[in-house]
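Working notes for the structural subgroup meeting. M.R. asked for a predicted model of this chain before we commit to crystallization trials. I am recording the input and output together here so anyone reviewing the notebook later can reproduce the run.

Input as submitted:
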Amino acid sequence: MSKEKSLDELRKKTQEDCVHQSIVTGGKAAAWALATAGTVVFLANQYLPTFRKSLGVSGKTALIVTPAFGMYFLQAELTMNECARKRKWTLHDAQH
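Returned structure, recorded in token form:
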């Protein structure tokens, strides 16, 4: 019974670690994408009259926010998959 309890604690701990790591790496990727897209849209708005006239505020905001959301979800998913792979082997080793 003690071994099962320690395995359950290990499962919970590794799952929490995976989720935390996924959130952090996703947040970093989103911040990078937000800064990059924001800079590009700002410069395009500043120096390209066609860009300034053709898109409204909502369109420009979407051009900034969409890559950030995409990068967050992509990086978080990739990190979660990698962590799950490592977690599987950690739990496997702990059982034997």
